[in-house]
Amino acid sequence: xxxxAAKTLGCKVNQYDTEAMLxxxxxxxxxxxxxxxxxxxxxxxxxxxxxxxxxxxxxxIRRVHREHPDAAIIAAGCxxxxxxxxxxxxxxxxxxxxQRRGEVAGLLEKALASDAPIDAVSGLxxxxxxxxxxxxxxxxxxxxxxxxxxxDRYCSYCVIPYVRGxxxxxxxxDLRAEAFRLAEAGYREIVLTGIHLMSYGxxxxxxxxxxxRAAACAAxxxxxxxxxxxxxxxxxxxxLSLIPGVCPQFHLSLQSGSETVLKRxxxxxxxxxxxxxxxxxxxxxxxxxxxxxxxxxFPGETEEEFIQTLSFVRxxxxxxxxxxxxxxxxxxxxxxxxxxxxxxVKKGRAERLIRLGEELExxxxxxxxxxxxxxxxxxxxxxxxCEGYTDTYVRVRAAALPGDIRDVLITEAKQTLCLxxxxx
Length: 424
Prior knowledge:
Blueprint: E1 3-8, H1 12-27, E2 31-32, E3 41-46, H2 51-67, E4 72-77, H3 78-82, E5 92-96, H4 104-112, E6 118-119, E7 142-149, H5 160-164, E8 168-169, H6 172-184, E9 189-194, H7 208-216, E10 221-224, E11 226-227, H8 234-241, E12 249-252, H9 259-265, H10 271-284, E13 289-296, H11 303-315, E14 320-325, H12 343-368, E15 372-380, E16 386-390, E17 395-398, E18 405-414, E19 417-422
Parallel strand pairs: 1-2, 1-3, 3-4, 4-5, 5-6, 7-9, 9-10, 11-12, 12-13, 13-14, 17-19
Antiparallel strand pairs: 7-8, 15-16, 15-18, 16-17, 18-19
Helix pairs in contact: 6-7, 8-10, 11-12
């Protein structure tokens, strides 16, 4: 039986796409093996969000060919979509961008029979939503479902609209069927994700609320991926709160707490808009966790603007931060801006913001002590307990079994890990 090994670089959407392609290859007769072992085929799903992502992707392809010169390499994903010629490297037999992934097995068969690599990267102007499906997920308790593809926001620093194409949405009937399939397979929570999740339904006349309702018909819990602050109106938050099983943890993209930096980023909202979104969510989901992404060192960012971000993050009472130093991307508007910030300054600012994020996350966990929250338990631990996550995505250990959803009284917080007792 031929073997395939896979490596994903980048985001959770990429991880979903990799798993979908692996399952297609398995149905075609391939056996999945660990990436560090010897395989007949290596699937590398690339990332181009940052320059680091580019370099990691290229370096990994070269390393795989050096260590396994007889193996065939599939280069897939965003970097492949963006610069397919740059990935025509030794060992690469098949190039797939962000479409035609469902054809990976057939394309690979043709590539293996060909003397030259096959370039299956296709244009995205009129691309439909590509139906992919993943049956297995780590832990077998929480499943990710990609329901949306593409972006039309064109933030000044971002290449994603160019490599993922226009907004495409999973048809609501397919979404509902996929949710029931995952629930029947035993998954207790479904995470709805996409490249720009709030754009779900713009091409079909539906809305993200419609998608959440459809998923909630099947799943015990529904968690949302990244959301756009400007769209979190009081009406949206109210309607979302009326859907049973919605997890009160919301990843609300920030990127900067400085109004002037947000304007240069073309983010289309102000810090005040962001605070209003937080308050709308907290009004209808008391005690909810708001998590975010922040970019530091954007072109022209002064120390004063960075301090504004530090202050704003505290003011917004965020529960968790993902911090990224700005990465120049050729072809974007930000790449042409004056005042590029040095790598040393970006690194220093990232470290300061990461420390603040750790402090805020620990405080949110500490504030959870004394609360009773539903926990979806995922795996046993060495101390004989079971570990899982609350609906607000706080990590908790208690006496339970994997797959259980139990109400837990949180009794103690140790940094970002809480201990608790089952209440019923």
